[in-house]
Please model this.
Amino acid sequence: MAELDPGNQAPITQAPITIKTWKEGDTPVVSLSGELDLSNTEQVRAQLEDALAGGTNRLVFEVSELEFMDSSGIALLASAAQRVREVEIRHPPAIVRRLLELTGLTELLRIVS
Amino acid sequence: MLLAQRPTVSRAGPRGPVRGRKAARGAAVAVLVIGLVITAILAVVTFRGHVRTERKLLVLQTKLIADAGAAEDQLYAQDLGGAARLAAATDGNTATFTKNVSTSVTAKGPFIVESLWRLRGSSPRLITAAGGTPLLAPTSARAAAVIRQATASKTFVVSELATRHELRLGLAAAASGPDGTFVVYAEEAAPADRRISEPASSPVSALDFALYLGRAQTSAALLETDAPARLPLRGTTFSTRIRFGNTFLTITTSPRSSLSGTTGVILPWAIAIGGVLLTILAALLTERLTRRRASAERLAGEIRQLYVEQRSVAETLQQALLPQKLAEIPGMQLAARYLPGAAGVDIGGDWYDVVPVDDRQFVFIVGDVSGRGVRAAAVMASLQFAGRAYALEGHSPATILDRLARSLDLERDGHFATVLCGLVDVGAHTVLLANAGHLPPLVCSGGEARLVTIESGSPIGISGGASRAHAEVKTGANDVLIAYTDGLVERRGEILDAGLERLQKAASRDFPSLDDMLSSIVTELSGDEPTDDIALIGLQWLS
Model:
C-alpha cells in the first residue's frame, strides 16, 4: 500500500504566506512574506485584485521576506505587469531576484534592491 | 487505451462494508464482555465489602448484648450469694431475708419467687419464701439435688423447671455460716412462648436474637427470642456464649435489615445495573464508531485509488504528448528523459521536441508551461505543435518564439511558458539559440560542462519586456548540449544558481554514452522523489 500513500500524491497543505497591503500615496503596496507557490497564489491573487480595484498606474510588491517563489508566483507578478504600467519589485532576496533574471522578467518588472 | 488502464475501484465495494460490520460487531462484543466482567467484579467486591461491614456490625452489637448478659451474671451472683451469706450470718433470720430480697422479687423481676433453705445433713429444708411458693417442691429429690449442687458450687447454679404452662429458671447460691449452710433459691420466669419484644429504642432492636441455656441451640433450650419467624435464625448469624452461673447462655443474633444503612444494600445493585447499562451503551457506541471508521477507511481507500487512477491518466496523457521516439539525425546522438514529479495528481507542462529542418539542420525545443493540470498540459500541447510547425517552415529560433508568443496570453489563458529554442547545424557545429525565460543550456566538452549564458527575453505569454535575441554556440566533436526544465535544478528554499552548479558538476565527467550521462545526471539531481516534473534532452555530435 506504500505506493498509495496520499501524502506523496497530493500535498493539500498550503505553503505559509503572509500578505499585507497598504498604500503609499496612490500606489498600492502588496507585501509578501513566506513562500509563494501554486498552493497559495489564488489567495494572493484575491488580495491583489482588491489592491488594484481602484485602478492604478503603479504597483509595488514588497518581497524582502519572500523565501521561495515558483512559476505560479512569476505568473502572478507578470500578470500584474500586464495590467499595470509599472510594477516594482522591492528588495527581492537573491533567490527571488535570480529567478526573475533567469526568467527574463527584469525588463518587464522594475527591480529595486 | 486510457480507459483500459483504469484500475478497478469497485473491488473494495461489496467486501468492505461486510468486513466493517463484522469488525464493528467484534469490537462491540469485546467491549460488552470487558464491561460486564468489570461490572461483575465491582458489584461483587462492593457486595462483599457490604457483607463484611454487616458482619462486623453484627458481631459488635452481639458483643454489646453479651456484655449486658455478663453484667447480669455478676448481678445474680451478688444478689443470690449476698442473700445466702446474709442468711448464714443471721442464722437464717427470716425477717432479714425477706427485707433483703424485697428489691429482687417485684413485678418487674428479676425473680418471681426467692426462697431460703437450710441444709442439715443431706436434706434441705425450706425456711421461708418471698413472692409465693417456689415451683421446686421442698421435699422432692429434685430440690435436694439442686440445693446440694448449690452448696458444691462457687457460683450460683442454674436449673430448669418446666410445667405445661411455663418455664422457670431456678437459680441457687449457697453460703455457710457458724450455724450451718444456707441456700438461697430464686425462680425467674421465661416469657410466655419464649417470645419477648424489644422496644424500638433498644440498641439491639435492629437484631433478631435467640437466647439458649447451655450450648445447644434447640427449642428445648430456648429461653427467649424476639424473632418473629421460626427458629433457628437464618441468614447472617452470629453466636456467642456468656457465662451464667455454673452454665452458659448462648446468644445467637441475626440482623433484621441492613445494619449499615440502605446505601450498602443498594450500592452493589446500583453498580451492577448502572454498569450493565453503561456497558451496553459503550458497546453500541463502539459498534457505531467502528463501523464509521471502517467506512471512513473504505472511503479513504477509494480516494487513494482515485488519486492513483487520476495520476495514471494524467501521466499517460503527458507521455502521449511527448515524442514517443526522437527524430533520427545523421551525425548526432539524441536522448531525452521525462520524470513526472510527485507533487499531487496534477501533471506539469514540461515538454521537449526535435524537428528536422533539412539534411543539415534541426530544431530542438524545450519548454515548461507554468502551473499544473490538464489545462497546462493542453497549453503545452498547443505550443509544442505550433513550435513544430514554425520550425518546419524554416523560421529562426527567435522568430519561432515570437510567433509562439502570439498564441499565448497569460491574462487570457492563465498560463505562461518558458521556452528554449535552438537551431542546430550538425556539420557546422553551431547552435543558434533563442530563449524565452528558460534556464540556460549546458554544453559539455571533454568532461567539462559550462552553462551557456544567453540574453533571455520575456517568457511566452508575457508581453512587453526584453526581445528575444539570438546567441550562437560553437561545439566540437563529441560535445553534448543539454537543455532541461527547472524541475532538474530547482529546490525549495535554495537559490537557482546552487542547482545550476550542481548540474554543472554532475555533467563534468566522462560518460560512456549519452544515455548513461542523462541517467546519471537525473539520478544525481532528482533524488528519490522529485517534486516537480523533469524534462531534459541531450544532443551529442558524433564527429
